[in-house]
Predict the 3D structure of the following.
Amino acid sequence: MKKINLVFILAIACALFVCASGVVSATTYYVPDNHEKIQWAVDNASAGDTIIVRDGTYTENVDVNKRLTIRSENGSANCIVQAAITDFPVFEVTADYVNISGFTVKDATGDVEESGFGGTGIALNSVSHCNVSDNIAVNNTAGIGLFYSNYSIIENNTCDSNSFGIGLGDANNNTLISNIFVNNGLFVWYSHDNIVEDNTVNGKPLVYLEGLSDAAVTDDAGQVILVNCNNITVQGKDLSYAGVGIELWETNDSTISNNIASNNNLAGIFILGSNNILKDNNASNNHFGIAVFSGLFNDIVSVNNIIENNTANNNAVEGYPGSSCGIRLDASHNIVRENKVSGNIIGIGVGSGPDSYILINNTISCNHATDNIYGIVFINSSYSVVENNIASNNSRFGIFLSSSSNSTITNNTVEFNNDCGINVLNSSNNTVTANTASSNNGSGIRICESERDIISNNLALNNSWGISLQYCNNSVMSTFNCRIEFG
């Protein structure tokens, strides 16, 4: 028996030896010792290997397509990787279980939306179980981006002066912990069940709430992100220089009041949700002052929001002449009233252009839209009401309606605009009534390439032209209009 046991043990030992001899141990590569470029080290590495990058500045776009650990030798202050092509990420990770740590990543400044994930310092693209830690991301469109990526850890990074510090796009079940944001913050898009803890924005807490109801934000927050919440109050905060000051994603029945949300790269206040009240806020010097959106395919609606008595000035970002707005509605069934919008590219903009779905039943009333390029703009909108507004001293039109129908423009004062007071273009079945259009450099009221519109009871004083109809079919201009022109 003892002899049999001894033979058995020897056989097992031999088998283990044979198996062990077939296992290839992980290799550590040094850049630039073994390979001059980080990408060359990645290309020559095998899954499970480690790449250590010595101090220096490297100009590359690194595609990490296998399970690797890539880290600097002496930390992010000493190891800089800048984008060779700014429309591509500095690091793009397309494999699971990748670790990236200890780098400064910079200058990926391409448009993230147009180029996929281009303008991103570190992009996780359709992966899971990755770790991004102890990095500095500076001067990128997005410092760190998680796109269709799950179960990853983003920890102890510093995101400084990016358009967005960290972006979550269709990214779920991730952990963001102990990150520092300076002059940027977090942005969430179609992302849920993430843990966001102990992060700061400009030295103040990043308040991230998900799935919470009936609460008030009491912290002196640097940024507020509400995901799938209900009946939350955000009042009296200074939420500036955060990329987005306040974001409501699928959040309803909440009140946002008396906040300052200025100098944000995207929006002072960004809403995707319903039955919210936004009042008495100052949202200035952003791309959008206040923006209300629906889902990409109208899968998430934003209805019955009231935007009241806010100030949204100087929201005018270079490079975005068609969309920078004081207040932007890309949703239906909302009310915008008694706001002051000045110095914007578009004071109040409803609709997003020819490829969008038609927006309906928005009411724009009692607002002051002055000294913008365009005062109040409707595109692809129907059954809207534009009433009792003052639109004056705008560089182009006071009120502009394009590709829209069945709307009413009434009791507005449009004056001293550098083009038309009211301009209706390529639209139908609208009513323009009881408006005062005076001292505009173009027509007081101009209807062009439109049909079946009714123009009645308007007063047009001291304009270059009083009321003009050009290339119109079956429109009715009532004799009750009063047109007093220059000369």
Summary: The helical segments are 2-21, 38-44. The CA atoms of residues 22 and 78 lie 39 Å apart.
